[in-house]
């Protein structure tokens, strides 16, 4: 099995660097890849009669699996898109600059995965090396609009970074207030 890599790179001087300038092309590459991968159809199992399992999960027939694609913004931020004839697995690695962000990301994704029943397309356990995974089957694309599923995934990718940054700011503010109150007792 081969994996295609898509690396979004911009050669800019450091003084002109703007993170949002590289975010849009990255999200656009993910959007286009997801739109291409979402061409799903119902496909019964070739091994067990009357079973319709997501081929990307069970991997019973190699000819039904398509080439996985990794869209990468940098070493930490990347998306693995694994398409098959009847399902797509999307795994997202979130940017984690320091230990606090790693802990917050782990807690946030664990919180989401524990409530995977409420999020129809969310997997309970992410793929190794990624923080969160989604599984979209042909049944999901029949129940929901494909473009809305893609919009949701792109919006999720935008918002998870904001959420983790907001939690980090709130944590730092709370730690500062706690430290000030603690040190007041010694004055």
From TrEMBL:
Q: Which domain of life is it from?
A: Eukaryota
Cross-referenced InterPro entries: ARPC2/4, ARPC4
Q: Does the keyword Cytoplasm apply?
A: yes
Q: What Gene Ontology cellular-component terms does the record carry?
A: Arp2/3 protein complex
Locations listed in the record: Cytoplasm, Cytoskeleton
Q: Which UniProt keywords apply?
A: Actin-binding, Cytoplasm, Cytoskeleton
Q: Which residues form the signal peptide?
A: none
Which Pfam family, just one, is annotated for this protein? ARPC4
* GO terms classed as biological process: actin filament polymerization; Arp2/3 complex-mediated actin nucleation
Q: Where are the transmembrane segments?
A: none
The Gene Ontology terms for molecular function here are:
actin filament binding
**Residue stretches in coiled coil:** none
Q: Does the keyword Transmembrane helix apply?
A: no
Q: Where is this chain primarily localised?
A: cytoplasm
State the protein's purpose: Functions as actin-binding component of the Arp2/3 complex which is involved in regulation of actin polymerization and together with an activating nucleation-promoting factor (NPF) mediates the formation of branched actin networks. Seems to contact the mother actin filament.
State the family named in the UniProt similarity comment for this chain: Belongs to the ARPC4 family.
The identity of this protein, by name, is Actin-related protein 2/3 complex subunit 4
Q: What is the source species?
A: Toxocara canis (Canine roundworm)
Q: Give the source lineage, highest ranks first.
A: Eukaryota, Metazoa, Ecdysozoa, Nematoda, Chromadorea
């Amino acid at each position: 099995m081969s994996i295609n890599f898509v690396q979004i790179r911009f050669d800019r001087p450091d003084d002109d660097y703007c993170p949002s300038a590289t975010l849009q092309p990255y999200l656009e590459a993910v959007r286009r890849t997801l739109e291409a991968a979402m061409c799903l159809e119902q496909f019964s199992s070739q091994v067990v009669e009357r079973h319709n399992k997501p081929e990307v999960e069970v991997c019973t027939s190699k000819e039904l699996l398509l080439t996985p694609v990794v869209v990468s913004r940098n070493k930490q931020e990347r998306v693995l898109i694994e398409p098959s004839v009847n399902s797509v697995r999307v795994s997202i690695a979130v940017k984690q600059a320091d230990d606090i962000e790693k802990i917050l990301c782990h807690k946030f994704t664990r919180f989401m995965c524990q409530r995977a029943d409420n999020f129809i397309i969310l997997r309970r356990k992410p793929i190794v090396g990624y923080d969160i995974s989604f599984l979209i089957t042909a049944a999901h694309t029949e129940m929901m609009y494909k473009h809305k599923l893609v919009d949701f995934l792109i919006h999720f990718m935008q918002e998870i970074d904001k959420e983790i940054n907001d939690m980090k700011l709130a944590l730092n503010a709370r730690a500062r207030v706690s430290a000030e109150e603690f040190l007041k007792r010694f004055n």
